[in-house]
Amino acid sequence: MNQHPLRIQIEEIVKLTDGEFKVVLEHFRQRTFKKHQIVLHQGDEARYDYFVMEGLMKVSRLDEDGKEHILQFGMENWWITDAEAFHRRAQSTLTVDCLEDTRTMSLTLEDKEKLCREIPKMQTFFLKKTINGYIALQKRILCFLSSNAKDRYHNLLSIYPGLIQRIPKAMVASYLGVSRETLSRLTKAEA
């Protein structure tokens, strides 16, 4: 019998009984989105944290000039939201949208807190996921500050295996903070 992707994710950190996992599932809601569907607009309340079961999402922000800056991609087994807006119940400063048809398990902050009270080891799970996310963000910032475009490109390939085949080159360039021309030179040099 195939195990649920969410249970596999959780059990990388904490073990659950079948009964505990049943309780976990009661707090989540399965949601499906279409390609190009915006899940969270800048300025909206971030009501959900999403666990991506299938598909691809991105977190981005438009600047005053209309230029898109991509902060994160969320593919299978990734969590994605505007973390600040979600945890502080504030307006989102980011946009979350689907790059492919996407199937998720969504969780509200209230359900997350309730779940942690009902199954305390879930608090350990979420804490470790948050710490890992913070470490990944710190590495991304340091890579951005101290690496050249080629190193940032290789870092992207290691963090998101298979992503390059799933998104347009303009999005790769936006994530790396380089021009499309620079990205073309990088990919040609790699070939």
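Next protein, fold it too.
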Amino acid sequence: MDAALGNNHSQAVWKHLENIADPELPAVSLVDLGIVHRVETEENRVKVELLPTFIGCPALSVIADVVARELRSLDGVESVDVQFVYDTLWTSERLTERGKLALKRYGIAPPSLAQPVCPYCDSVETELTSRFGPAPCRMVAYCHHCQQPFEVFKTL
């Protein structure tokens, strides 16, 4: 067993995944976004199962490539298998509190069943202006208080 991975390979991989940013939302790690479903380690091999936020997400291949490259950089890891699984659906409830805060700091309102809260001024004087945003997982809203448009992460 490699000393760099320590006694618990899986824990070391999870810790490393916490530092890998989502390519479309660089303020949020893949772990905080809640798309890391399962990590399996065996000797020098790592298997990571990811949940896409949307099946048609255009960044899936980029995410898989980044995860594989980053995990291969760990000492003792020779083989990385990254798979997207579809039998478990990603939901916005998988976002961690740290992930929601990172979205807000990035200017994107975290998902909410209530009126979207403006990430800039915390006002609820907002309106949804389009259910279609720059990515399938986001919508566009407008804050009447600070007069700023902003994105809202969809609630699923």
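About the second fold: The longest strand covers residues 36-42.
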